[in-house]
Amino acid sequence: MNKISRILTVVVTCLVVGYFSGIVTKSSIEIWYPTLVKPSFNPPNWIFAPVWSMLYIMMGVAAGLVWNRIDFDKENVKKALIFFAIQLALNGLWSYLFFGLKNPMLAGIEMVLLWLMIFETYAKFGKINTIASYLFIPYLLWVSFAFVLNASIWWLNR
User: pTM higher than 0.85, yes or no?
Assistant: First the structure.
């Protein structure tokens, strides 16, 4: 597989995870989510789809750049991509916990683990490809904000 194919494969994989996360959230966003008390800094609903789409693309490009180093540092690349896969699975799980189960507390607890896996992926990517780690910074910042938002929603609706 060539370099571009690897990047595209991971980008598409990330977007597919995002798509299925969107399916889980759709009915809850229309029915349940509007009934929740939200903090004043809660962004409008329309902002989430473009932000997540961009983050998924950046994540995929980052993972593809790391994958492209497989011939030079096989062991570290494999470890980094395992962490990437774990954080991507946790990313999808959050949507199910928050919107599917309608459980902001459980989603918030899971988000702590998600953040730690994102940070570890960022650190492992940085040892292999600096640009890949830089592409993870907006994701780390967004998930940090999302954690504060998640915790605030839980607190306001407990």
Answer: yes
How far, in Å, CA of 83 to CA of 13, rounded?
A: 15
Q: Is 84 within 8 Å of 67 (Cβ atoms)?
A: no
Q: 12 CB contacts (<8 Å, ≥6 apart)? A: 60
Cβ contacts of 73 within 8 Å, gap of 6 or more: 128
State the DSSP string of 16-82.
HHHHHHHHHHHHHHHTTGGGS---TTPPPGGGHHHHHHHHHHHHHHHHHHHHTTTTT-HHHHHHHHH
Residue with tokens 């998924």: 56
- Asked whether the CA dihedral 157, 99, 56, 88 is positive or negative, the reply is positive
Q: In this predicted model, what pLDDT tens digit does every residue of 42-69 receive, in sequence order?
A: 999 999 999 999 999 999 999 999 999 9
For residues 149 and 66, the answer to whether their CB atoms sit within 8 Å is no
